[in-house]
Design the sequence.
């Protein structure tokens, strides 16, 4: 079969940055998000939630609520046909099996846990009714941090115990290597609960249509339809989930949010129901990023070669499993970063607490650990008197190297290039702006996976149809969280089939109508659905090419599909006597129709598969990685501890930029989320109670907090996504905290090891420095005494 | 519940709506009039997704009572557009510059920055600097873009507007 | 998300508003800018039965009476924050306030929020409250028995509590106009630009006409207790020398007992108070010296 691949130098649509499809609707304000949907007779739904983190429920009295005029339904656990969600996120590879109820029955395990549901004719009445549901609680002792949860005799969040899963990855002889190392550096690093804080709160509308329970919701995963059917005791064919374009997701809409509650209220009332979570409700009760405690012991030779990494990761999973097993697995798989480590021992444990459940959030475990491994590198550099860049270059992975899991890297590793470019973008280091100010420069490199863990045998399907008028239809189960998931598929199809972008319509995220593509997470959609569309388009083109060849009298191998037409191309076409001969796509479709050749095509793309053995800690993890480096200049006010980011630069190897402007946007947006994570964001959960329960108190970056993120992109072309692309959705959030910590370290001489790096904490580090000043830097250091010069980060 | 009928002038059109006193401008615009470009984001006045212009000034739709808006001009982002959904030049800049990712903050960003540029130009000042634009947008939160492309789009528009004023 | 149901009435005058407020008792609240009240209602933290909208009651602009020696800047209670930021009379008559208002809220909040509303709300982190204290401002409060003038130093009584009677409404804020040989400075520390202040300090300094020595100092602090406070004058600096200014800042901070909250510990707030007070004092003295006739 002929391989009609696109010559790399001749991309027409891929590699450009058109603004099209949903972006036009967004700028027009005509896009309908999940809450922008109304049906006649629509009710308003509300969740009644536990006000305390750990308690027994001894009674629920709904009579007052039900009696309120305008209330149509008040539901409790007894009204849920199958009140059990069991999610074995790793496929049951190693975790405990734990049930999560849809509505709490006799016990609540976190503050905000759903206990009852209300549906009423107005939002006002729904609020009042929710306040009238009387629940009797008897408070129980709880555990609110991983140490307490693991202590002997600790109160059990679940009967089966407080350790949900513990992964291990081992290679070589870590104990021996550490004992023999010339230098060993230790550190303990802690990260905090953070919230996705998408501007669009969780929302959706549900209704019954021809006996099918239909939900139109802001969700990253339409495959939850199966779980919803199970909860209601319905056949899967009677549940349909439509994913509206999201106003942000970031992993916070990866587990079910409003879906089961809408489904129950719709099923019970037989009326349409809308539910929008309060922002404050979302802050308190929606899933969060896992706070990690990371303990590192790194051994190295005097020349800086890393010989050993011993890592212990403890993640606070909160009250229920959700995706914790996968998050802690990703952390383990990436705990050593983009560096060669011949002897490694990594344990990564998810622990139950009575805090709000932790689950997916952009970066998914692989991002928290960057703080740990980059801190270790910088501390090693300081100890050995090597520059930070030199030490990293000595240890960077390369294509063909083994990871601690025993996997061999089969794509190129351009992290060194990204490091030089990121530093280069910063230019000359700035001088302090006045007395009482210190400046510093920092870097942070990372290795971040894209694609699901290989043992999931991931696949995605896409369906394309060339219509009679030459326009193109794409159907994909992909969901779109605002990063061009849908639009990128159009660009790829446009590249292969030559249909103009304006002639392409894409229908996404409908479990009844679209071929399944899997959810939008794990930076997998470009890799999976991008490949699915690429292959579907190529296969369709291959099928139609002989028909076009016949019409044009030209070899099928030498046809060009572009600008809505098919024309003769190839080397022989330079013969001027041929002239410009082409047909429109509509003519091609018609000709195919006459020959009974279908112009519609479904293709399923399958990712590579493999397996992992949790007992040996060896096997296959992720299909590939995206490498990048960030660099930053900061100024620290030594009297207040405030940190001002003066300049910030980010460079990633994206393989191939399908839409360069969107790639930049992902990097800028991811870095900004990372800056919030590094410096200002904290749910501040104390004894199970969220302190930052107002949007005014949960501090996401605003337009004045940080400088523009300068971006450069490397296009190595060796990614496993379509046309050599690598995923870029998640990677840019990972480098930031490490980069800022590195810069503060450079400025004040002490390394922050706890997030967020608030002014108060930085001031405490300065106090610590003043109390016990280090006896000069490591010998042979090329650090100048002037703090502005930097510890070997080249200018 | 004491429902009353009021007339709201929205995007140049009068609408008669039934409200209760506690209904906010956001409630009425979004739920009664079906305007999708005014959105609930926080209810606290800090996020900006409910931004509307009230007599030309950006206000929090979630903190203004509908009854207070009766007799005043309410403008949403879609009210800036021309016939046939023709984009306002500021919207075109947003589109061209990739200033919209999930799009949820876009209407608030557009209205607030338009107000800023208009006032600067009307007052005969040079167009706002990037720093002044940042300051004006402090109450319009964005979680997707990192703000850079939004600032780029607004600066591009501000230059266009300044040029037009200079050479009408 | 949705406010509890209430009745609404628009008051055409302050007198009408006072009557309605007196009749409504605890169940009635004044709606001015709404930027503090409405969030509380949206979060269902307050359940008033009646909202009295006083926006129609007052259209007066800021004005100044008297001469430079004893001039008074009169700000009607419904003066929007944006006007404080931009109005010429405010920028010249009370540059401290015009500067501090930059830190209040955001564009939308400043378009609606009012100075009277801010002072009546009595937030312990309020920049406006801080400036009102530092300038020795007064409020005019109208009640069923008529008007009375209250120094702002006697206005704040605790977290979100004033000494106003339940049926009293602020109608005017009176601020002594900035004098020659007067210097001012506003400093605040926020975790994120435009947030509620962690600690804010407003300083007004008067130098003696002839000698240029320190004649009067008023130092107001926000975020350091249950209300905005004026530093005890006995702690004020003895001179404009840096050492005296720093010593005063240290004394003042030492006396404070701020509480912990989600954004900062009390101890950190005390340290900030010292740092910001010192910085504000230096800047105010420098401005006063440079503002010679």
Sequence:
């Amino acid at each position: 079969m002929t391989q009609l691949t696109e010559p790399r130098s001749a991309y027409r649509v891929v590699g450009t940055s058109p603004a099209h499809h949903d972006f036009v609707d967004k700028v027009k304000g005509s896009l309908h998000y999940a809450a922008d949907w109304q049906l006649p007779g629509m009710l308003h739904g509300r969740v009644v939630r536990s006000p305390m983190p750990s308690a027994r429920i001894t009674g629920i009295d709904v009579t007052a609520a039900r009696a309120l005029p305008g209330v149509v339904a008040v539901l409790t656990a007894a009204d849920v046909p199958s009140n059990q969600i069991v999610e074995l996120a790793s496929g049951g590879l190693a975790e405990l099996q734990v049930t999560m109820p849809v509505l709490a029955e006799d016990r609540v395990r976190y503050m905000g846990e759903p206990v009852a549901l209300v549906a009423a004719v107005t939002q006002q009445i729904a609020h009042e009714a929710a306040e009238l549901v009387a629940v009797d609680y008897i408070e129980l002792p709880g555990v609110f941090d991983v140490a307490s949860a693991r202590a002997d005799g600790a109160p059990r969040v679940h009967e089966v115990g407080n350790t949900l899963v513990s992964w291990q990855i081992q290679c070589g002889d870590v104990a021996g290597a550490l004992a023999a190392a010339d230098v060993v550096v230790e550190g303990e690093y802690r990260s905090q609960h953070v919230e996705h804080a998408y501007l669009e709160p969780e929302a959706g509308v549900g209704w019954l249509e021809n006996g099918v329970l239909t939900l139109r919701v802001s969700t990253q995963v339409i495959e939850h339809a199966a779980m919803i059917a199970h909860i209601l005791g319905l056949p899967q064919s009677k549940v349909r989930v439509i994913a509206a374009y999201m106003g942000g997701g970031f992993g916070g809409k990866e587990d079910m949010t409003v879906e089961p509650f809408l489904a129950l209220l719709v099923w019970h009332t037989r009326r349409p129901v809308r539910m929008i979570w309060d922002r404050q409700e979302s802050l308190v009760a929606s899933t969060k990023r896992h706070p990690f405690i990371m303990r590192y012991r790194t051994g190295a030779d005097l020349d800086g070669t890393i010989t050993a990494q011993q890592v212990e990761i403890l993640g606070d999973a909160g009250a229920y499993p959700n995706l914790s097993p996968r998050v802690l697995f990703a952390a383990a798989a990436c705990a050593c970063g983009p560096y060669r480590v011949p002897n490694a021992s990594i344990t990564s444990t998810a622990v139950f607490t009575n805090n709000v459940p932790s689950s997916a959030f952009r970066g998914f475990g692989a991002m928290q650990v960057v703080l740990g491994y980059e801190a270790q590198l910088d501390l090693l550099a300081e100890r050995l008197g090597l520059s930070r860049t030199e030490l990293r270059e000595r240890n960077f992975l390369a294509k063909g190297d083994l990871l601690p899991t025993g996997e061999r890297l089969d794509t190129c590793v351009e992290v060194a290039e990204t490091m030089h470019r990121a530093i280069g973008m910063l230019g000359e280091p700035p001088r302090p702006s006045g007395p009482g100010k210190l400046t510093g420069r920092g870097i942070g490199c990372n290795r971040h996976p894209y694609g699901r863990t290989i043992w999931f045998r991931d696949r995605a399907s896409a369906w394309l149809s060339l219509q009679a008028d030459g326009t193109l239809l794409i159907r994909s189960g992909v969901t779109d969280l605002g990063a061009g998931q849908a639009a990128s598929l159009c660009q790829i199809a446009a590249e292969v089939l030559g249909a103009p972008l304006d002639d392409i319509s894409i229908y996404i995220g409908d479990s009844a109508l679209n071929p399944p593509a899997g959810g939008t997470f794990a930076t997998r959609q470009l890799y999976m659905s991008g490949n699915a569309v690429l292959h579907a388009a190529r296969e369709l083109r291959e099928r139609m090419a002989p028909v076009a060849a016949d019409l044009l009298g030209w070899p099928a191998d030498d046809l060009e599909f572009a600008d809505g037409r098919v024309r003769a191309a190839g080397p022989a076409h330079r013969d001027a006597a041929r002239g410009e001969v082409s047909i429109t796509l509509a003519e091609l479709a018609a000709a195919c129709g006459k020959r009974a050749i279908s112009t519609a095509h479904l293709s399923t793309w399958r990712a590579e598969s493999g397996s992992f053995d949790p007992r040996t800690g060896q096997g296959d993890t992720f299909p590939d990685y995206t490498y990048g480096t960030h660099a930053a200049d900061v100024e620290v006010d030594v009297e207040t501890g405030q940190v001002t980011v003066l300049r910030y630069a980010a460079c990633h190897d994206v393989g191939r930029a399908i839409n360069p402007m969107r790639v930049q946007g992902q990097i800028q947006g991811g870095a900004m989320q990372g800056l919030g994570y590094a410096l200002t964001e904290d749910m501040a959960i104390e004894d199970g109670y969220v302190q930052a329960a107002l949007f005014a108190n949960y501090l996401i970056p605003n337009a004045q907090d940080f400088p523009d993120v300068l971006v450069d992109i490397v296009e190595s072309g060796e990614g496993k996504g379509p046309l050599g692309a690598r995923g870029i959705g998640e990677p840019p959030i990972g480098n930031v905290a490490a980069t800022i910590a590195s810069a503060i370290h450079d400025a004040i001489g002490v390394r922050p090891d706890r997030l967020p790096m608030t002014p108060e904490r930085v001031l405490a580090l300065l106090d610590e420095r003043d109390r016990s000043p280090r006896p000069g830097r490591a010998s042979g250091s090329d650090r100048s005494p002037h703090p502005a010069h930097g510890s070997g980060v080249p200018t | 519940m004491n429902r009353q009928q009021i007339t709201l002038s929205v995007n140049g059109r009068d609408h008669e709506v039934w409200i209760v006193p506690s209904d906010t401008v956001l409630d009425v615009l979004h739920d009664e009039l079906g305007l999708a470009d005014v959105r609930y984001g926080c209810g606290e006045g800090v996020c900006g997704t409910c931004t509307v212009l009230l007599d030309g000034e950006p206000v929090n739709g979630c903190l203004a009572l509908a009854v207070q808006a009766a007799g005043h001009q309410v403008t949403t982002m879609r009210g800036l557009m021309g016939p046939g959904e023709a984009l306002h030049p500021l919207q075109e800049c947003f589109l061209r510059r990739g200033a919209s990712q999930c799009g949820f903050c876009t209407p608030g960003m557009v209205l607030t920055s338009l107000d800023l540029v208009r006032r600067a130009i009307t007052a005969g000042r040079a167009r706002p600097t990037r720093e002044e634009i940042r300051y004006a947008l402090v109450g319009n939160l964005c979680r997707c873009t990192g703000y850079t492309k939004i600032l780029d789009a607004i600066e591009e528009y501000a230059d266009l507007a300044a040029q037009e004023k200079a050479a009408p | 998300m949705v406010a509890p149901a209430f009745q609404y009435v628009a008051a055409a005058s302050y007198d009408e508003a006072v009557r309605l407020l007196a009749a409504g008792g605890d169940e009635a609240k004044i709606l001015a800018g709404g930027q503090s009240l409405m969030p509380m209602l949206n979060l269902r933290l307050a359940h008033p039965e009646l909202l009295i909208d006083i926006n129609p009651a007052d259209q007066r602009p800021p004005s100044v009476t008297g001469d430079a020696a004893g001039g008074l800047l009169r700000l009607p209670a419904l003066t929007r924050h944006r006007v404080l930021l931009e109005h010429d009379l405010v920028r010249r008559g009370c540059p401290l306030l015009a500067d501090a208002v930059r830190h209040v809220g955001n564009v939308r909040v400043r378009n609606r929020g009012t100075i009277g509303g801010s002072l009546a709300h009595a937030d312990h982190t309020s920049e406006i409250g801080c400036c009102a204290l530092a300038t020795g401002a007064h409020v005019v409060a109208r009640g069923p028995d008529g008007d009375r003038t209250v120094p702002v130093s006697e206005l704040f009584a605790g977290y979100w509590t004033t000494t106003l009677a339940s049926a009293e409404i602020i109608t005017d804020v009176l601020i002594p106009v900035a004098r020659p040989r007067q210097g001012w400075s506003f400093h605040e520390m926020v975790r994120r630009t435009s947030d509620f202040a962690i600690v804010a300090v407003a300083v007004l300094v008067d130098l003696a006409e002839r000698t240029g020595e320190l004649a009067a100092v008023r130092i107001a602090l926000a975020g350091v207790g249950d209300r905005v406070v004026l530093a005890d004058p006995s702690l004020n600096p003895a001179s404009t020398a840096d050492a005296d200014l720093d010593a005063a800042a240290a004394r003042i901070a030492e006396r404070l007992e701020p509480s912990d909250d989600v954004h900062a510990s009390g101890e950190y707030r005390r340290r900030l108070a010292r740092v910001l007070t010192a910085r504000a004092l230096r800047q105010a003295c420098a401005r006063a010296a440079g503002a010679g006739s």
